[in-house]
Specification:
Strand content of chain A: over 45%
Number of helices of chain A: 0
Distance between the termini of chain B: 37 Å
Structural class of chain A: mainly beta
Shape of chain B: globular
Low-confidence stretches of chain A: none
Low-confidence stretches of chain B: none
Helix content of chain B: under 10%
Order of helices and strands of chain A: EEEEEEEEEEE
Shape of chain A: globular
Radius of gyration of chain B: 13 Å
Largest sheet of chain A: 7 strands, mixed
Strand content of chain B: over 45%
Radius of gyration of chain A: 13 Å
Helix content of chain A: under 10%
Mean pLDDT of chain B: 93
Distance between the termini of chain A: 31 Å
Order of helices and strands of chain B: EEEEEEEEEEE
Largest interface: A-B, 29 and 26 residues
Oligomer: heterodimer
Largest sheet of chain B: 6 strands, mixed
Number of strands of chain A: 11
Number of strands of chain B: 11
Chain lengths: 114, 110
């Protein structure tokens, strides 16, 4: 158990819908990262927040957005869902994102878009 | 998105055998990490490497940071059934962003 929690574990929805994925980082970690893992693919970095502010952006679609709240939990919002958005979405956290403070991953949310 | 090249893509070995896999990049990284992912779970950090040439062990696992800083290697000695899973390398340059490899799927037969 990494200490990072994600909810829900599974999510099934229809095209065009909007969903929200939730992540709680490890106690004491200020940085949260979101990744997408499609079938047979590696992990693609989406976005990072540090202490409530966006710190880095990766391959995140405009239909996707995220935020980190004062209690440091984070939410990833996916809208106008398409079939290709079906994937595993992982959240990771680290103390502050600096060298020697590595990322620890949550169990993921499996999103299925029908 | 950018990914690192990992090889082999998959391995089927017998319990007790040693395993070697590697990760290569066309550009330099300052940190190399190795993660293992079990089915339905998130990646778990195995080994972190921070200096070119560094050799680090974690039990039966040994990883090396290539001296060119463009590659890394992971070896597993005396494999056991619970080693089954997907192994990912990840590299980092000067920012927090990790770039992941394409993964090596390991299957161990008794």
């Amino acid at each position: 158990d990494s200490g990072v929690t994600q909810t829900p574990k599974h999510l099934i929805t229809a095209t065009g819908q909007r969903v929200t994925l939730r992540c709680s980082p490890r106690s004491g970690d200020l940085s949260v990262y979101w990744y997408q893992q499609s079938l047979d693919q590696g992990l693609q970095f989406l976005i990072q927040y540090y202490n409530g502010e966006e710190r880095a952006k990766g391959n995140i679609l405009e239909r996707f957005s995220a935020q980190q709240f004062p209690d440091l939990h984070s939410e990833l919002n996916l809208s106008s869902l398409e079939l290709g958005d079906s994937a595993l979405y992982f959240c990771a956290s680290s103390v502050d994102g600096s060298v020697y403070n590595e990322q620890f991953f949550g169990p993921g949310t499996r999103l299925t878009v029908l | 998105g950018q990914q690192l090249n990992q090889s082999p893509q998959s391995m089927f070995i017998q319990e007790g055998e040693d395993v070697s896999m590697n990760c290569t990049s066309s550009s330099i990284f300052n940190t190399w990490l190795w993660y293992k992912q079990d089915p339905g779970e998130g990646p778990v950090l195995l080994i972190a490497l921070y200096k070119a040439g560094e050799l680090t062990s974690n039990g039966r696992l040994t990883a090396q940071f290539g001296i060119t800083r463009k590659d890394s290697f992971l070896n597993i000695s005396a494999s056991i059934p619970s080693d089954v899973g997907i192994y990912f390398c990840a590299g980092r340059r000067n920012t927090d962003k990790l770039i992941f490899g394409t993964g090596t799927r390991l299957q161990v037969f008794p």
